UniProtKB/TrEMBL annotation:
The keyword Methyltransferase does not apply. Residues 84-148 form the Adaptor protein ClpS core domain. Keywords: Signal. Residues 1-20 form the signal peptide. This is Adaptor protein ClpS core domain-containing protein. It holds the Pfam family ClpS. Gene3D superfamilies: 3.30.1390.10. It comes from the Eukaryota. One of its GO terms (biological process) is proteolysis. InterPro entries: ClpS, ClpS_core, Ribosomal_bL12_C/ClpS-like. The lineage of its organism: Eukaryota, Sar, Stramenopiles, Ochrophyta, Bacillariophyta.
Length: 161
């Protein structure tokens, strides 16, 4: 707010040459003319400056960007990843505390605290535990998030019989 007041004072002191720069559609006033400094300051109110700066060459509506199609690279299909089930498994390690593993399972997968505790205990006692089964994209997302939390885990396809 103080900066805009400072700008108005500077504009009023400099006179018409600055006014002509900001408002080219208005008639130029010379120092010897009958236009007073208060008139210049009134013309250059903050609202006037903003309105005039918006009008100068700015489009009213942005054009939609042209869509780029990539013809040079064919779409690659992932075999065996679409609708099949994938398991995310965690392993017991000596690096993470049991509390950290259970908390990470709750935060990443949305398990209840009891389910996360039971899964963590299964991994602690047996060395491995299945976190869950999902389609590949969801399993990959959970796997990556668990790895980012420092949990030793992997993702494997489920062999349905």
């Amino acid at each position: 707010m103080a900066a805009s007041r400072f700008l108005l004072v500077v504009l009023a002191l400099l006179g018409s040459s600055v006014t002509a720069f900001f408002a080219p559609s208005r008639p130029k006033a010379s120092f010897g003319s009958s236009v007073s400094r208060s008139t210049v300051a009134a013309r250059m109110s903050p609202a006037t400056i903003e309105r005039e700066s918006v009008k100068v060459g700015a489009p009213a509506v942005l054009d939609r960007p042209a869509e780029k199609t990539r013809v040079d690279e064919p779409v690659k299909e992932r075999k065996g990843m679409g609708h099949e089930a994938w398991e995310v498994r965690i392993y017991n390690d000596g690096l993470n505390t049991r509390e950290h593993v259970a908390r990470s399972l709750v935060q990443v997968t949305g398990m209840s605290e009891m389910e996360a505790y039971q899964t963590m205990m299964q991994a602690h006692q047996n060395g491995i535990a299945v976190v869950g089964r999902w389609v590949y994209e969801v399993a990959e997302m959970y796997h990556d998030a668990l790895q980012n939390n420092g949990i030793v885990c992997d993702i494997v396809p489920v062999e349905e019989e």
